[in-house]
Design brief:
- The complex is a heterodimer of chains A (about 1200) and B (about 325).
- By secondary structure, chain A is α/β, with parallel strands linked by helices.
- Chain A is built from 41 helices and 39 strands.
- Chain A has a 9-stranded mixed beta sheet. Chain A has an 8-stranded mixed beta sheet with strand order 31-30-32-33-37-36-38-39, sandwiched between helices. In chain A, strands 3-2-4-5-7-6-12 form a 7-stranded mixed beta sheet, with helices on both faces.
- Chain A is globular, with a radius of gyration of 32 Å.
- The N and C termini of chain A lie far apart (about 75 Å).
- With about 325 residues, chain B is of the alpha/beta class.
- Chain B has a single domain, classed as Aldolase class I (TIM Barrel, Alpha-Beta Barrel), CATH 3.20.20.70.
- In chain B, about 40% of the residues lie in helices and about 15% in strands.
- In chain B, the strands form 3 sheets. An 8-stranded parallel β-barrel of chain B has the order 3-4-5-6-7-8-11-12, surrounded by 8 helices. A two-stranded antiparallel ribbon of chain B has the order 1-2. In chain B, strands 9-10 form a two-stranded antiparallel ribbon.
- In chain B, α1 links the parallel β3 and β4.
- In chain B, α1 runs parallel beside α3, α4 runs parallel beside α5 and α8 crosses α10.
- The C terminus of chain B is likely disordered.
- The chains are: A alpha/beta (about 1200), B alpha/beta (about 325).
- At the A-B interface, α2, α15, α20 and α40 of A face α2 of B.
């Protein structure tokens, strides 16, 4: 059977083998490995068979720990079993990995290697995770490319069956897992040929069965444990030969020969670089280039890292080698060297090559670029008399001075390879189009092709950069296209030009394609001077297309994919134009055909319209523009923002030296205000003549960009002429007070939720509200001035505000603003509300997920400070431990408070009885009480300032704990219902005063919408492709069972007042509180402008009953449960089928959709009845609740 | 022996009661129950080209939305197989045809000319005994004249007729300047039958929220008057079978429809409200009435009270209004 050539990424390449050679697959989503699980789940959902003709059973678990346990169990009973993971996920598997290895179990885990969260989290690639399991007894096999990941997935399985040692097959996260390239796909026959049926039978035979009962997992004593630990040695000794045997067999079968250590370069090399993973590709290309120029250099690529075969290593190393540089893509602080370096040092000694000089260094952490220039720098270091050991390469370390100098001008890129860089928006389809182009080039021409994609960390307005290479020779460049190297640069969004220096990539004579609202005659006068300079200096061929118009005409909306892809093919000359268009259309049919003819037709029209609207620009000889590119942050931003944040915003973070950064990952808050992203095409405009000052627009705004303020009229002095205001209608602040609703024009994302929420309509024209959308560009300058003026007006004193009404609560300043969350996000309004109500005395423990990304991903943070510099202190520990993490915070506060109180009593004589009594007996149930306590604490500190008594110093250090603090534990349903549930349960049971806010989107939103136990029945999600067949877990009901946990379920779109009340009550309850908040999400598949309407329908249909359960009522003899939803008045269908997550099942499997919908509807009825019974139960004194 | 049979679009029907286009035909079991209850033919729910396009574009939008972060390329799984386009409708049609013996009439509302013709062929190929074109269109553009609209619709009917071989009927709205003239043009263009009238979803206002809301009110017998008048006027003037729909709730309503000249009386609201049991009750009552009044067959009464058959045709015209006013004046 002929092997097909496919253009796929590393995750698909790996999963395509793993799915075909396993029976049970336990999965859990974690970037960058999630796609492997998604593929496996999708293929099994489509009943795709493995090579033995049966569909693998795929199950999603609640965590990687759970997946590992399940894998262990499945292996122990004899199934061929695998899983996919990365980073913290792999760490959670460690306990089981020891067990699986200790029991000599044949198994393979496939890992997209990723950084570990330390001073900060990173989703990007390095070897920190796999290095953390090198001691578990698993064999570690490293693939360096997409083809190798595909091949090694099979070789590792073949080897583990024979060796009985489990294998961890890994490849670099993102660089390999997400690189799209052309590979030869192994056939089922290849797979069968490599896997010995006898060995599979033996694996099954070792499985536990009552037919042949045995016992494993004994507990052992000092007398025997050690001996048995040593009993496995022969198996480890045999692994290298077994792997090489499998590699040789594979070579005979397929033609690609691998070795445990692959040496490349000069046959008589004197200097050699040793490394693993994708860096090996770059090193191989570089040493080949240098060797061809006569340099005696080579590279040794490590494939089998554990067990480490000294014998094979020595055999692979040329005799001529005099010095070695070992590169580790990991960091082991405090070690005498990184792991691979230490292994090589040891191997040279034990292998009797100790004359060879060795140095080691670190590179590429968190997908840091690793280029040929860096490879050369490390080899050049070996030429030095006293080379630097334990160096770093790729960064500027001006603290420990570990970094090597790199000649940035060194490049080995071949002229035969065409290099293209594309700048697009996350939402405009650029990445998808480029993946498609790579497929066309890879599969329809004889070219080799590679695509790699960079994304910034925002969830709205994401900038994506696609790096495409293609040419007649295989491509091994595992690094981004460098400056001055691109033959083609495309800008898919015109506004990027004012903030991104993209022409730095263009080489002389390159093509520059710009999507522009200006035509070929107007464009020059609308370019920044830097852009004009580059176009002239680099002699660029400059093309424009008005893709926005083409998209509008052809119904493509904001998607530029087909248009810009067509333009690329039309002018790049990769294929003859006619053929290229034919291929694009063919691929459109292939990609979109199953979604209906209308989609295909629309895309065809876009292709044709593109060609008709593409023009080359006559480039003038001189730079004429007086407009410069915008600064990354305004000049008035603080020094840290200028020095550290601004370069990151400006895509220049790689150049920031070590000394500029905080040493422990501590960052200042309130920095999003400096990153003006100007995403919205339209922004809200306030109409005072209609406004009823209800504050609903402010309440629902996900980005805190629309605010209202009541202020003394005299504050209007010096207001810009266009600053809008009206007399205040607040009864507490009427006479002499003015009122304004103001929009931050450059921070708004244009989601329109404020307009949807606005209840005030013009009586003569109901389509006009008190808030309406209008184009941003014309308003940008004037509204920015108005915003600055608005912010300069002092906020009302918190002591004067009773926050129990929506309008009043929104007078409190949001201390969570301008986040990078999706436009229209359903989570952030709740987060913002908490920040308004309690932000100046809140500590947030945030589970990993969307909220930790929009809340804490560099460069800027939305958590902000008030005029006094107070605001939420925030931290993210992990995904799985967030409740416990928050509990720890509470315990500190409680302990410090207790200690402070003890010290107050002990130091009464020095402090004075009145102040001590005031501090000890303060009523802090109101803002006034809290403010007074703060004053007392300030007085206490002043009083003790000069006191040298150790107890006085201690008291000063813990005195702040005397002011009431609020601990908020926040996260999504993936955390609360699944991975963090055990901890959450324990924390709720602890009785401690913590507040848990579950931002329930009913899927793992951050990783792309995988099902959680919160996913409702009948909804489709990844890992629940055929619709979830079981109901949503009722987390609130479980928590209510404790009887002493405050529980509320809220949906602000249904009842904002209930939401506000629940959050205030939860915080006021001196015990654990749980608020489960309905959060609409892009993963639900509808226009989020309708999010509030959908929330309403969710409650009206009974899908999301809102209630409050307040244990304080039980203590008063009242029923603690108040159901605030009315008996369902609309059917579940009326709510659900507005959302693609439900509706798509009616299109893919109507019968199942009907069946699940019917069951879900019945479930709603059952739950409603149960809640009603609970709410009418007799409590305490036996009186029925009215 | 009473003869309740009639013909419509060349189809021989055992009686004149036909289930008009409604969600009832989405389920085979429901259609079977209608047949058992005595309905003589079923018009399937409408295939809306606009809806097909919308569903496709919507699905595509939400499946491809994404590619927007390093952690999530998409947010919904793509199963790759969807019953989009006319496929699902045609499958339902074929299943319905297999499940019942009575004629099944397809119903179609298109957008583009190409769409109308293509889907009409699909419906024919799916086994429909006839096709009803649902000319559901609300003109809102003041630059569009009545002539433009009518000509476009006539052309469309001709084009569809030319592309299929099964009988073709056209369901109309009552809002045409000169319905008899337009109806004749449709018949000339190839319409074998006309269905009077389509009931649009009429928008309502929510006075509290100041929102326009869409409510579906089921018809009542009072709604019979409008189609009754126009079937009466068109009967004999137009070379096409007439079907009366809207307001058929009782045996009397159906009998009136027949007397106005309709070949069939179509109903949906009555069936949605009362279920299939309404049908045998109506048929029994029709039979009882005919016996009592010594009618032998439905055909005998068809058109017997149409404009051309009554003594005072003016009763259907403007004079009717004048008379009403006069009769009021004459009151003591």
């Amino acid at each position: 059977m002929k092997r097909s050539i496919v253009t796929i990424d590393g995750n698909e390449a790996t999963a395509s083998v793993a799915h075909r050679i396993n029976e049970v697959i336990a999965i859990y989503p974690i970037t960058p490995s999630s796609a492997m699980g998604e593929f496996a789940d999708e293929w099994s959902a489509k009943h795709k068979k493995n090579i033995w003709g049966t569909t693998p059973l795929v199950i999603e678990m609640q965590s990687e720990g759970g997946a590992a346990g399940t894998v262990h169990g499945a292996l122990q009973t004899g199934a061929l079993t695998t899983t996919f993971t990365a980073s913290q996920g792999l760490l959670l598997m460690i306990p089981n990995m020891y067990k699986i290895a200790g029991e000599l179990t044949s198994a393979v885990f496939h890992v997209a290697a990723r950084a570990i969260a330390a001073h900060g989290l990173s989703i990007f690639g390095d070897h920190q995770d796999v290095m953390a399991v090198r001691q578990t007894g698993w064999a570690l096999l490293s693939a360096g490319s997409v083809q190798e990941a595909h091949d090694f997935a099979l070789i590792s399985q073949a080897a583990t069956l024979k060796a009985r040692v489990p294998f961890l097959h890994f490849f670099d996260g993102f660089r390999t897992s997400h690189e799209v390239t052309k590979i030869e796909q192994l056939t089922d026959e290849d797979l069968r040929s490599m896997l010995d049926p006898e060995l599979i039978a033996a694996h099954r035979a070792r499985g536990l069965t009552p037919e042949r009962p045995v016992l494993r997992g004994t507990a052992q004593n000092p007398d025997v444990y050690f001996q048995m630990r040593e009993a496995v040695n022969p198996f480890y000794a045999a692994v290298p030969a077994i792997v090489q045997e499998a590699m040789d067999k594979f070579a005979k079968l397929v033609g690609r020969q691998y070795h445990l250590f692959d040496y490349v370069g000069h046959p008589e090399a004197e200097r050699v670089v040793i490394l693993m993973g994708s860096g090996g590709e770059t090193a191989e290309e570089t040493v080949n280039y240098l060797a061809a120029k006569g340099e005696k250099v080579g590279a040794l690529r490590v494939r089998l890292y554990r067990p480490f075969s000294i014998e094979h290593f020595i055999a692979a190393l040329p005799k001529s080698v005099k010095s070695i540089v070992v590169l580790d893509r990991t960091k082991e602080p405090g070690a005498s060297g990184e792991p691979l370096y230490m292994d090589i040092v040891n191997a040279l000694v034990e292998g009797r090559r100790s004359e060879v000089k060795v140095i080691g260094g670190r590179y590429g952490l968190s997908s840091k670029e690793f280029t040929p220039a860096m490879v050369k720098a490390t080899l050049d270091e070996l030429k030095k008399k006293e080379p630097k050991n334990h160096f770093t390469v790729g960064i500027t370390d001006d603290v420990s001075h570990t970094s090597l100098d790199v000649d940035a001008s060194f490049s080995i890129e071949s002229d035969e390879t065409v290099r293209c860089v594309f700048f697009g928006l996350g939402s405009d389809g650029t990445v998808g189009a480029n993946k498609n182009s790579i497929k066309i080039i890879g599969e329809e021409t004889s070219n080799f092709a590679q695509g790699y994609f960079y994304y910034d960390s925002k969830k709205s307005g994401t900038v994506t950069v696609s790096h495409l290479r293609f040419g007649p020779k295989p491509i091994h460049a595992a690094y981004l296209i460098e400056q001055n190297q691109a033959n083609f640069v495309a800008c898919h969004q015109f506004t990027f030009l004012e903030r991104v220096d993209m022409l730095k990539y263009a080489k002389e004579g390159a093509v520059f394609l710009l999507n522009s609202p200006y035509n070929k005659d107007e464009i020059w006068d609308n370019l920044q001077s830097e852009v004009q300079t580059d176009i002239i200096a680099k002699k660029l061929k400059f093309y424009v297309i008005n893709g926005y118009d083409v998209a509008e005409q052809t119904g493509m909306g904001g998607r530029m994919n087909t248009i810009m892809q067509t333009a690329f093919f039309a002018i790049s000359g990769v294929l003859p134009r006619e053929q290229a268009i034919e291929e694009i259309k063919h691929s459109i049919e292939k990609t979109y055909g199953k979604r209906g003819e209308a989609v295909v037709k629309k895309n065809f029209e876009a292709v044709d319209a593109t060609i008709a609207n593409l023009y080359e620009v006559d480039v003038p000889a001189l730079v004429t523009s007086k407009v410069a590119r915008r600064l990354a942050v305004p000049k008035e931003a603080p020094a840290f923002v200028q020095q550290v944040v601004a370069p990151i915003v400006d895509f220049k973070g790689d150049a920031v030296p070590v000394s500029a950064f905080p040493i422990d990952g501590t960052f200042p808050t309130a920095t999003t205000q400096w990153e003006k992203r100007n995403l919205a095409l339209d922004i809200p405009v306030w109409e005072p003549d209609l406004c009823i000052q209800c504050g609903k627009c402010v309440f629902v705004c996900p980005h805190a960009v629309i605010r209202h303020k009541v202020y003394e009229e005299k504050a209007l002095e010096g207001a810009p002429a266009e600053f809008k205001h009206m007399p205040s209608k607040f009864k507490e602040f009427s006479q002499g007070f003015a009122y304004t609703v103001q929009v931050a024009p450059e921070d708004c994302t244009g989601c329109t939720l404020c307009v949807e929420a606005c209840p005030a309509k013009d009586k003569t024209q109901v389509g006009r509200k008190a808030i309406n959308m209008a184009p941003q560009p014309a308003l940008r300058e004037s509204e920015a001035k108005n915003w600055d003026f608005f912010m300069s007006i002092p906020d009302l004193d918190r002591k004067l505000i009773n926050p129990s009404t929506i309008k009043n609560s929104q007078l409190l300043r949001p201390l969570f603003e301008f986040s990078g969350a999706c436009a229209g996000c359903g989570e952030t309004p709740y987060v913002k509300l908490v920040s308004q109500l309690f932000g100046d005395r809140t500590i947030v423990a945030n589970a990993t997920g969307c909220s930790s990304i929009y809340g804490g991903n560099l460069p800027t943070t939305p958590w902000a400070v008030d005029a006094n510099g107070r605001g939420p202190a925030w931290s993210n520990s992990l995904f799985e431990d967030n409740a416990e993490f928050g509990l720890g915070m509470r315990l500190t506060l409680d302990k410090q408070n207790e200690y402070a109180r003890e010290l107050l009593k002990a130091l009464t004589a020095e402090i004075g009885q009145t102040l001590v009594d005031g501090l000890l007996n303060a009523d802090q149930s109101t803002e006034t009480g809290i403010a007074e306590q703060r004053e007392r604490v300030a007085a206490l500190k002043e009083k003790l300032a000069a006191n040298k008594d150790v107890r006085a110093r201690d008291l000063i250090s813990v005195a702040d704990s005397l002011v009431k603090k609020s601990v908020w534990i926040m996260g999504g349903d993936g955390w609360a219902y699944d991975i963090g549930y055990g901890g959450l349960d324990h924390v709720l049971a602890s009785g401690r005063n913590v507040n848990v806010l579950v931002l329930d989107t009913e899927v793992y939103s951050n990783t792309g919408g995988q099902a959680s136990k919160s996913t409702p029945m009948a909804a489709v999600a990844k890992f629940a492709m055929s619709g979830k067949s079981l109901p949503k877990k009722d987390l609130g009901l479980i928590a209510m069972a404790y009887g002493y946990v405050y529980v509320a379920r809220v949906a602000m779109g249904y009842n904002d007042q209930q939401t506000l009340r629940a959050i205030i009550e939860a915080e006021s309850y001196d015990g654990p509180s749980l608020v489960i908040a309905y959060s609409h999400c892009i993963a639900h598949g509808y226009d989020l402008a309708r999010g509030l309407d959908q929330q309403k329908l969710a409650v009206q249909s009974g899908a999301w009953p809102v209630y409050r359960y307040d244990p304080r009522l039980a203590a008063e003899g009242k029923n603690p449960l108040t159901i605030e939803a009315k008996e369902p008045t609309v059917s579940l269908q009326q709510y659900a089928y507005n959302e693609t997550r439900y509706k798509m099942l009616t299109l893919s499997d109507e019968g199942r959709a009907e069946e699940l919908m019917k069951k879900a509807q019945e479930g709603i009825k059952g739950r409603w009845d149960l809640y009603q019974q609970m709410a009418s139960m007799h409590y305490g004194n036996g009186e029925k609740k009215e | 022996m009473l003869d309740l049979s009639t013909t419509y679009l060349g189809l021989n029907l055992k009686n004149p009661l036909v289930a008009s286009a409604s969600p009832m035909s989405k389920k085979v079991e429901r259609a079977q129950r209608l047949e058992e209850a005595g309905v003589a033919a079923i018009v399937m729910y409408s295939l809306f080209e606009e809806q097909i396009i919308h569903e496709s574009l919507e699905l595509d939008h939400f499946l491809t939305r994404g590619h927007n972060s390093a952690e999530a390329m998409t947010y919904l799984p793509d199963s790759g197989t969807y019953a989009l386009g006319p496929k699902k409708y045609i499958e339902n049609l074929t299943a319905l045809k297999k499940a019942v013996q009575i004629p099944v009439i397809g119903s179609l509302n298109g957008v583009s000319k190409g769409g109308w013709i293509e889907y009409a062929r699909h419906i024919q190929d799916g086994g429909a005994d006839a096709l009803e074109l649902n000319l559901y269109y609300i003109p809102t553009d003041s630059s569009l004249s009545a002539v433009d609209i009518e000509s476009a619709q006539v052309d469309l009917v001709a084009a569809v007729k030319a592309s299929i071989s099964i009988p073709l009927s056209v369901k109309l709205s009552p809002f045409y300047t000169s319905l008899p003239h337009f109806a004749s043009r449709l018949a000339d263009a190839g319409a074998d039958g006309l269905v009077l009238f389509n009931r649009f979803y009429q928008p309502d206002f929510d006075l509290e929220a100041l929102d326009v809301i869409a409510n579906l009110d089921l018809s009542t017998s009072a709604d019979l008057r409008l189609p009754l008048r126009w079937v009466s006027i068109l009967n004999g003037q137009v070379k096409a079978d007439l079907a009366l729909t809207s307001g058929i709730h009782t045996a009397q309503d159906a009998l009136k429809a027949m007397m106005s000249g309709a070949k069939v009386a179509m109903m949906a609201s009555n069936l949605l409200h009362n279920g299939e049991r309404a049908v045998p009750l109506m048929l029994n009552e029709m039979g009882w009435w005919m016996e009592t009044h010594e009618y032998e067959s439905i055909r005998q009464m068809q058109g017997s009270m149409s404009r051309k058959s009554v003594a005072e045709p003016a009763a259907f015209e403007r004079a009717n209004y004048m008379k009403a006013l006069n009769s009021w004046r004459e009151l003591p």
